[in-house]
Amino acid sequence: MRIAAIVEYDGSRFCGWQLQQGDRTVQGCVEQALSKVGDETVHVTVAGRTDAGVHACAQVIHFDSGARRSDYEWLRGGNSNLPRDVALLWVGEVDASFHARFSTTGRRYRYAILNRAVRPTYLAGRVTWEYRPLDIAPMQQASRYLIGTHDFSSFRAVQCQAKSPVRELRRLSVTRQGELVFIEASANGFLHHMVRNIAGVLMAIGAGEQHPQWAQALLAARDRTVGGITAPADGLYLAAVDYPEHCAIPLLSSTLALW
Fold first, then answer.
1. Are 35 and 42 contacting, i.e. CB atoms less than 8 angstroms apart?
2. For the CA atoms of 95, 97, 98, 104, what is the dihedral angle to 10 degrees?
3. Tally of structural domains, the chain
4. Is 51 an active-site residue?
5. 171 and 99 belong to one structural domain
6. How far apart are CA 198 and CA 214, in angstroms?
7. Cβ contact 151:165 at 8 Å
8. What are phi and psi for residue 78, nearest 5 degrees?
9. Same domain for 203 and 93?
10. Are 5 and 74 in contact (CB under 8 A)?
11. Which of 10, 23, 39, 51 is catalytic?
12. Are residues 120 and 221 in the same domain?
């Protein structure tokens, strides 16, 4: 059977998603837990790898298993064997043609900024702290230059291995809720560090270091070396992964609340 699952995790104490020898990774924890439930070695395929410190509200995986277990047994047993900072939110059997990565139609990220003079305490590691006052109006103006299908070379990591830098950024919004500023991005796909680099540019604009048209100029330059600072991983959340309706992957209420 091919089985899909939605995974939530706090990335603060992980070295990222991908399995790495000797390091604590989300993939390592998930595969170990599911292997115990299935009483067999389980290897999972993920919708999109996340870096060290990045969180996920609704990461999607799939795996194949010959073990005769119900969806509930995979869910309950998996969570019983997972550490407190990882949880399976949903598990379900899917068609054999489903692929967690290649069946996607888009991904959504949210970047959370605590914008106040005093550093965070209980939110440390879960938000990015910016002590300088951020004016969201120029950030919103700058974001509009980036929406659409573009070459995002100026906004991807130097070590990015994607074959093409062209992506369709479908949504990019900036909102404020008291001391919290949220950047929300939706696209058909994201380049390595793309959201964090966009956040770094928007934060510099919001702080008055640059004007909104700087974002447009960076986009046109297609050169990462002229781009802004990469924002920290702390505030980045993979909020949702989109699939065609026939894939039957639910969009959970906890994810919807973020949007």
1. yes
2. -140
3. 2
4. yes
5. no
6. 12
7. yes
8. -60, -45
9. no
10. yes
11. 51
12. yes
**119 and 67 co-located in one domain:** no
Considering the domain architecture, whether residues 189 and 89 belong to the same structural domain is answered as no
Residues 176, 142 within the same domain: yes
Count CB-CB contacts under 10 A for residue 28: 17
Whether residues 97 and 123 fall in one domain: no
191-230 pLDDT tens trace: 999 999 999 999 999 999 999 999 999 999 999 999 889 9
Q: How far is CA 51 from CA 16, 99, 164, 193, in A?
A: 4, 21, 20, 9
Domain interval for residue 143: 109-238
Instruction: Measure the CA–CA gap between 183 and 218, rounded to whole angstroms.
Output: 18
- Are 128 and 85 within one domain? no
Neighbours of 36 (CB within 10 A): 15
| Predicted pLDDT of residue 259 | 47
Q: What is the CATH number of the domain that holds 70?
A: 3.30.70.580
Q: Which pLDDT does position 154 carry in this prediction? A: 96
Q: In the chain, where does DSSP find H-type helix?
A: 26-38, 71-80, 136-146, 194-206, 213-221, 253-256
